Structure formats: C-alpha cells, structure tokens
Amino acid sequence: MNTSTSQNQVMDSHSPFEINGKAILITIDGPAGAGKTTISRCLAGKLGYRYLDTGALYRAIAWAFHHAGLNPDSENDSRIEAFLKTLLLQTDCTKNLDTVIRVNGRDVSAHIRSPEIAMLASAISAKPAVRRYLLELQQEIGRPGGVVCEGRDMGTVVFPHADIKFYLDASCEIRARRRLLELPDNSGISLADLISLIQQRDQADSTREIAPLKMPDDAILIDSSDLDIDGVIARMEGHLRALARNRAIWR
Ligand code: DC
Questions:
Q1: Where are the domains of the chain?
Q2: 153-197 residue pLDDT tens
Q3: Which of 142, 164, 217, 241 has the fewest C-beta atoms under 10 angstroms from its C-beta?
Q4: Does the pLDDT at position 12 exceed 70?
Q5: Does ligand 1 have an atom closer than 6 angstroms to the CB of 178?
Q6: Residue 75, beta-bridge partner list
Q7: CA-126 nearest atom, ligand 1
Q8: Which segments within 68-214 are labelled E, that is strand?
Q9: Predicted model pTM
Q10: Which atom of ligand 1 is nearest the CA belonging to 58?
Q11: What percent of the chain has pLDDT over 70?
C-alpha cells in the first residue's frame, strides 16, 4: 500500500496537498496562546495552503471601534451593525504566510497585536452583529478549500463540515510564557499579568452565549504543553495521512 508514501511526498513537495484530487479544508481551534497561529502557518506552508487567521479579523474590528472612539459595550446590536456596514475588511496572506488586514483600505496589521486590542477583540467577539458579519466573510474565504483556518469556532460554527478538525490546547502558564516571548522587552507586562489576562479571556471566550470556545465533538485534541512545533506538526501530518488513506479506501 503506497498511499501514505505518496501523501508523504505531497506534504514535502510544493504542490498543494490533495485527497482524491481535492485540496481540503482544515480547522484549528483552541484557546489564546495554545500555538494555533504558529502551527496553522507552519502546516499551511507544508501543505501549500493558504492560512486564515480569524482572530486577526476580530482584532481588526476591535481596532476600528477603538479608532472611531466607540465602546462596543455602550452600543446596541443595530448600532454595531450600522457601524460594521461602514467597514470594508480585507484579509490576505503573503507568500510567507504573514497575515495582512486592511480596514477601509488602511493596513492595520501592525496595530492589532497589543494586549489592549486583544481585550477589546474579546469583548466585540461576544456581539452577535460582529459574529454575523464575520461568518459570511470567513465562509467565503474557506469555500474553495486549500486553507488552514484558525480560530475559536471554526469547527463548531463556521466550518462544521471541515475535512479535518484539530483542537490545540496547552496549560495556562505555558500559554502565558509563549505570549511573554512575543512581547517587546520593555512592554512592562509580567508573567503574572499575562496569566491573569489569559484566564480572563478564557473565561470570557468560553462562557459567552454565542459561539463559545468549545472543542468540536469530532475534533482531534492535541495538547502542545510538552510538544515543540515539529512535534505538533508531525502528529497533524499523521492524522492527515490517515484521512487520505481512509478516503482512498472508501471513495
Ligand atoms: O486568537 P486571537 O487572540 O487573535 O483572537 C482575538 C479574539 O477574537 C479572542 O479573544 C477571541 C476572538 N475570536 C473569536 O471569538 N472567534 C474566532 N474564530 C477567533 C477569535
């Protein structure tokens, strides 16, 4: 049986990974700091796929609220909807799989990674109008396949029929340590601050009424606390090979 060998070759080559002649849709969900971004980009690169960072979409909307001086908690659903109608949100990834996000033509990619925007993104992500607005955009991007979609509700809400779903988790302290390494030395933010922020965001993201952070029933759980990037990717590749083998048999 040489299916797994041919899938190995596809994963290592520059032609996109296909099963039965089709590029597939992969979702990776999980809490903040579990390594979703790094892993999704790396997997997309290996498979020759695009990468969709949906957290960046929520952050870009948060930036737009901040920039307009609006507090989402003081606005009702229809006012939020009206504000969203004034926004043109565009996302793309470069050849290096860096996410580029534009709000009304302005590239805000460099402005959306601060802890302040992260907290605001968590707040606006609980607003039904925001989720409705982004649902359609995300589904449009995922429709042709050949994409790794990263977020909180990819496998549960946005792409319930994804070809394969992963749920990436890690302990709270490990996630805080990873976030600390991403911040500049002079950020003034301590590990304890980050642990507390991550706990608050986990709580907010998993208890909100719409699209709470939840592992999809049919997802494959990978705990990255004790795994490096290669270790996580190797596990995912193993599952992709198994999927390719099963589909080749059941076609
Ligand atoms: O992954 P991130 O830290 O960039 O996400 C920013 C916020 O957006 C996070 O608090 C949760 C929210 N989010 C969401 O609700 N659904 C998604 N699919 C992605 C992100």
A1: 3-250
A2: 999 999 999 999 999 999 999 999 988 988 888 889 999 999 999
A3: 217
A4: no
A5: no
A6: none
A7: 15
A8: 89-93, 99-103, 106-107, 147-151, 164-169
A9: 0.87
A10: 8
A11: 94
